[in-house]
Each structure stands twice: as structure tokens, then as C-alpha cells.
Design brief:
Elements lengths: L6 H18 L7 E8 L8 H13 L4 E6 L3 E6 L2 H15 L3 E8 L4 H5 L6 E2 L6 E8 L1 H22 L6 E5 L2 E6 L2 H14 L3 E8 L2 E8 L1 H26 L5 E5 L3 E7 L4 H9 L3 E6 L10 E6 L2 E9 L4 E2 L3 E8 L5 E7 L1 H12 L5 E18 L2 E19 L7 E4 L5 H13 L6 E8 L2 H54 L3 E2 L1 H30 L4 H33 L3 H32 L10
Parallel strand pairs: 5-23, 14-20
Antiparallel strand pairs: 1-3, 1-4, 2-3, 6-12, 6-22, 7-8, 8-10, 9-10, 11-12, 13-16, 13-19, 14-15, 17-18, 18-21, 19-20
Helix pairs in contact: 1-11, 2-3, 5-7, 11-12, 11-14, 12-13, 12-14, 13-14
């Protein structure tokens, strides 16, 4: 019988619509402004004592807060407004001090039963929801200093290999000073160093202490090192953002030594801040022997036992820069560890060092460049003051039993969370130079609210105009088209939420365009039905013919548009991708609703009936 669907098609349509309603519902529950607290180290938890201090400080300031949650190592406090959220952040940072990360966040309000079904709201872009804006500055002096330390270690190795004796080698203020016992040894070293280290300018200096050769990097070399530091840090930060799984982030260079990072709708901004700002690196060093010169060694404490120390050689075998992959795992005793793979050069260096030092102990030194944050009063205003500092702690100190290769493991970590974070940082790549937060702020929460309201208004106006036109022009069939159009919006919201697609202002434009395209398919079908009736065909046959014959035209039109949307997504960036995503999904949902849902409604209303006229 024509104009009748089999039962399975009706059940399929009902199932899809029910699915759409459930997974679109979380978008009806707006997030609460919140502040998230976490410690500087992932292994340290935020306890009841810290949370109680924060609550008292907020109460004393008259800031209303609610919905407090404490998990394994973080606490989240909710607020009624964005203004309270911003005020609270300063108060909390001042209360807890520099050992805790205080970050702005948005806490979800989705009911638990929807969360249990895997439903969640769609992500909103920076122009709608706002997000976190970080301005970070690369420490150029530290970049030069770190590079000089590497050069100093290579120069020591070269002089020892060539059997040129020197008394002392020191680095200071971007230069390297080598002290010799006599001028003849210095003259032997000069051409060798000029050949192997052409980036240095050489000057001689003699005094009562000995014969010195001063090496200073040329201006061109300094600029190259600085430029490399910024580019490497840019790449590393992009990798870290990718590891965090942020949709449509912005990571770009600004000026000579700064990097801008914008993270729209980040759920865990405290963790993002800790991971992005962490300049953690590893250094592999041998334990100093009894005949090691005290000037060539230094003492360090253990990370998990401050009362235990060890004296290590200053010479670095390899650093985290040589790590090609790192994965968190557990050893045979169930303790956390990090499995490390080195690149070819790193493997050669570690193999040579361990092969020649069997029975000696090698340390893994964890180096962190941190920032102390404290609230100070300047000109009557409270501002954050940041002071950089460096922490070096020994993770492990193990006896070398045999020569190591490209793969080995690091133990001695405090917790699985710490091993996961260390693996993430090493996998994403180490920073070429320390980097510090210069500015942190949210991007236009009020502007985002206004954009959302304007975007919703545009969708409402567009839909209202379409609904009125369809009802006036196509009457009952217009009602069917409007119901299908509503289903289309619900399904589109559900798909975007499930795929974690980011909705931006251009994305809203894509939704508005989708409304027109969805109705356009119905217009083609209804026009074909009217044409068949005018040609003398019976209403039931006209309905059947209208849907069947219009399908190819609708399919071709939507397919070409879909291809354009895919190309836009492939070659576009940021807002263009947002537009392409909503347009692509809208095409798929409109094909389903305009053809199947509308046909189902028409079949229910007119199927199996002897009709003389249609309300079209």
C-alpha cells in the first residue's frame, strides 16, 4: 500500500528522535561560574584544611559560594555570577599562597542520570562561552644560559679527548671562561675550539690566577638561540594543548619572546595551567666519585625524601630533549614508573656513558622552573607578583649494572598521577627555555553571554519566519515541515554534543543556513506534489510521486553542499571549521528529517485514505 511505512521505520524514527532529545537535553542546563584549586604537584592533594581556610576567607569577604566539591587532588567552588568568580580568585590565591594553582572554570550542572548515559552539553567556542587566555613569556637569559651549559659540557669532553689540560671551566652571564696553567696550552686549545665552536668569539685574559680564554656567543648566535627557544616552546605548548584535548585552541607567537594561548571552554583549567606552565625536564648525571673536583659537582636532595642527599657531577649525559616517547606504567611491585624511549643520538650518549661506568651510580634529576605568586598592594590595588625560581630534585639513583640502550625506565615517583604527568610532559616535548605566565584572564564572559543571546535570537527569528511562511503557504503540510524542522534542530544539537564539536558564532550561522536548507527540501517535495495534482494525479499518488521524484534532486543538492563543507573543514582553521562542522551535520540531519520524518507524518495523516483534496 502506498504512503505507508513498515513498523520498523516508525520505530527507527522514534528511536532516533528519542536519542536526539536525550543527548540534546544537557544543553538546557547552563554551567556555573567556578574556581578550581589544585596543588603545584599532582601528587599533593587539596585537603579539608585548605578548603576550610578558603571558605572562611570567602565568607569574610561576603562572596556567596555553593556546591563545593573535593576530589583526589582538586577542589571546585561554584559562584552565582562571573563578578563573584573573579573576586573570589584573587582572595583564594592570597589565602592559599604560592603552592597552589587557582584557576577560573565553569562547573557543569547536567543531571547525573544524563551523565550516566554519556550525555553532555556541546562545547562553546571562545567567542560564545569565553575561556582562558594565557600570555606566556620565554626566559631568554635562561635559554642562553642553558645552551652555554651544554656547550661547556661539550668543550670539556673535547679538551679531554684531545688531552689538552685545563684548570677550570666556568659559565657566567652568557660566556664561558677556561683557565689554563700556561699560554702554550691555551694556544693549543684556541684553533680547536674555533673550528668546533664557530659561534663563539674568543678573547684572551691573563692575570695572577692563570691564563684565561673567554668565549662569548656572537650576536647572530644569540638571536638564533632565542628564536629557536621560542619556536621550540611554541611546538611543545601546541603538543601539550593537544594532549589536553582542547577543541580549537589558539597557540601563537606574539612579539619577540611571548606566546599567546587561548583555550575555549576548558573544563580543567587548573590542570591546563599546571601542565602548560610546567618547564619540567630530566637530566641524567653520574654520581660524583671521590676524585671528582668539588667545582665540578653539586649536591641535590631527593624528591620524595628531603632528608636524603647525593653529590652529582655537573656534566649532563642527556636531558629530556632526547626522549622520543614516554609512557606511564607500573613496575613488578605495583609502583608507578615511566617507560622511556630515546632518540638515536640520546641512545648513543647514554650507552657510551653507562658502558664506561659500570658499578657507578647514575641519577635522574628532575628540574622544574617554577613561579612564586603572591598578592601585593601597588598604588592601593592588589596585584599578583610573580618571581621565577628553579627546583632540582633527584628522582632516582641507581647502580649501573650494564650498558643502557634506547629504552629504559624511571622509578621513584610518588604516585600514578605524577608518573602520568611526567610522561605527558616528556612525550609532548621539553621546553627549550623556561616560560612564565605573564597574564591570565578569561575571555569575555559577558561578551560570550551577549553573543549567545544574539545567536539564539537569530535562530529564533529565522525559525519563526520559516514556520510562519510554511504554515501560510503549505497549511497542513507546512505544519509537518515545521515539526520536522524542530526535530532537525534537536538532532543537530545532539550530534554536536556527542561529537564534542565546538559551537562558535560562525557555527550558529551554519545552523541558520541549515534551517533554510532543511525547509528547501520540503519545498521541493511539496512543489512536486502540487505539480502532480495539477497534472491530474490523485492525491495519494501525488504524495507518493512527490517524495520519490524529489529525492534525487534533494540528494544531489545536499551532496554538493556537503562536499564543499568537507573541503572547508579540511583547509580551514578556527571559525571556518566551526561553520563547516555545523553545516555538515546539518545537511545529514536535514536529509533525515525532511525526507523520513516529514514522510512519516504525512503517512500517518493521509496514508490508506481515499482523498479528494490535500491541504497543501
Amino acid at each position: 500500500m502506498i504512503n505507508k511505512y513498515p513498523l520498523w521505520k516508525y520505530l527507527l524514527i522514534l528511536t532516533v528522535l528519542a536519542f536526539g532529545v536525550i543527548y540534546a537535553m544537557p544543553n538546557l542546563y547552563p554551567d556555573d561560574p567556578a574556581v578550581q584549586l589544585t596543588s603545584q604537584r599532582s601528587s599533593v592533594q587539596v585537603g579539608e584544611a585548605e578548603f576550610s581556610k578558603v571558605a572562611k576567607a570567602l565568607d569574610a569577604a561576603g562572596i556567596e559560594h555553593f556546591g563545593e566539591e573535593i576530589t583526589s587532588n582538586t577542589a571546585v567552588i561554584r559562584f552565582r555570577s562571573d563578578e563573584d568568580q573573579l573576586k573570589a580568585k584573587t582572595i583564594i590565591q592570597e589565602t592559599l599562597g604560592e603552592n597552589y594553582v587557582v584557576a577560573l572554570n565553569l562547573a557543569p550542572t547536567t543531571p547525573q542520570w544524563l551523565v550516566d548515559l554519556g550525555a553532555g552539553p556541546m562545547k562553546l567556542g571562545l567567542d560564545l562561552r569565553g575561556g582562558v587566555h594565557f600570555l606566556m613569556e620565554v626566559d631568554m637569559k635562561a635559554a642562553i644560559s642553558q645552551r652555554n651549559e651544554v656547550y661547556a659540557s661539550e668543550i670539556k669532553t673535547l679538551l679531554r679527548t684531545e688531552r689538552i689540560r685545563y684548570r677550570r671551566l666556568t659559565t657566567k652571564d652568557g660566556s664561558i671562561s677556561i683557565r689554563f696553567n700556561d699560554a702554550e696550552l691555551r694556544d693549543q686549545a684556541k684553533p680547536l675550539l674555533r673550528k668546533e665552536f664557530a659561534d663563539f668569539m674568543q678573547t684572551e685574559r691573563d692575570n695572577a690566577e692563570g691564563f684565561f680564554l673567554e668565549l662569548a656567543l656572537s650576536e647572530t648566535a644569540v638571536r638564533n638561540i632565542e628564536d629557536y627557544a621560542v619556536k621550540q616552546n611554541l611546538t611543545t605548548l601546541r603538543n601539550r594543548v593537544n594532549e589536553l584535548g582542547v577543541s580549537e585552541p589558539l597557540v601563537q607567537r606574539q612579539g619577540r619572546n611571548r606566546i599567546v594561548i587561548e583555550l575555549p571552554g576548558v573544563q580543567d583549567t587548573a590542570a591546563a595551567k599546571r601542565v602548560l606552565g610546567a618547564t619540567a625536564n630530566l637530566e641524567f648525571r653520574l654520581e660524583a666519585s671521590s676524585d671528582t673536583n668539588t667545582l665540578d659537582s653539586e649536591e641535590h636532595v631527593f624528591r620524595n625524601n628531603p632528608d636524603r642527599t647525593a653529590v652529582l657531577e655537573k656534566d649532563i649525559i642527556i636531558t629530556g630533549n632526547s626522549v622520543s616517547n614516554a609512557l606511564s606504567a607500573f613496575d613488578e611491585n605495583g609502583q608507578p614508573q615511566v617507560n622511556i624511549d630515546l632518540d638515536t643520538q640520546g641512545g648513543k650518549l647514554i650507552n657510551r656513558a653507562t658502558r664506561n661506568n659500570i658499578r657507578r651510580r647514575m641519577a635522574v634529576l628532575f628540574v622544574e622552573h617554577k613561579m612564586k605568586t603572591r598578592i601585593v598592594e601597588v598604588a592601593g590595588e592588589k596585584v599578583e607578583q610573580r618571581t621565577p625560581y628553579v627546583e632540582k630534585h633527584i628522582i632516582s639513583l641507581a647502580t649501573i649494572q650494564s650498558a643502557l640502550g634506547n629504552s629504559f625506565r624511571i622509578t621513584g615517583l610518588d604516585s600514578p598521577a605524577e608518573s602520568s604527568e611526567l610522561a605527558l610532559l616528556l612525550r609532548a616535548g621539553s621546553l627549550a627555555a623556561p616560560i612564565y605566565f605573564v597574564e591570565e584572564r578569561t575571555i569575555g564572559p559577558s561578551l560570550g553571554k551577549e553573543n549567545i543571546e544574539l545567536g539564539i535570537t537569530s535562530v529564533q527569528i529565522g525559525m519563526a519566519l520559516v514556520v510562519v511562511f510554511m504554515l501560510v503557504y503549505y497549511r497542513m503540510f507546512g505544519l509537518f515541515a515545521n515539526l520536522a524542522l524542530t526535530a532537525n534542530l534537536v538532532l543537530l544539537a545532539a550530534l554536536m554534543s556527542m561529537m564534542s564539536a565546538t559551537l562558535t558564532l560562525p557555527g550558529i550561522a551554519g545552523i541558520v543556513l541549515t534551517l533554510g536548507m532543511a525547509v528547501d527540501a520540503n519545498v521541493l517535495i511539496f512543489s512536486r506534489i502540487k505539480e502532480e495534482i495539477q497534472n491530474g494525479m490523485s492525491p495519494p499518488m501525488a504524495i507518493h510521486s512527490g517524495f520519490e521524484r524529489a529525492f534525487i534532486t534533494i540528494f544531489d543538492a545536499n551532496l554538493t553542499t556537503l562536499l564543499v563543507a568537507v573541503i572547508l573543514f579540511a583547509v580551514g582553521t578556527g571559525p571556518v571549521k566551526g561553520f563547516a562542522v555545523t553545516l555538515s551535520l546539518g545537511i545529514l540531519t536535514s536529509m533525515f528529517t525532511a525526507i523520513m520524518v516529514t514522510r512519516a507524518l504525512v503517512n500517518i495523516a493521509y496514508g490508506g485514505r481515499q482523498l479528494k483534496k490535500l491541504s497543501i
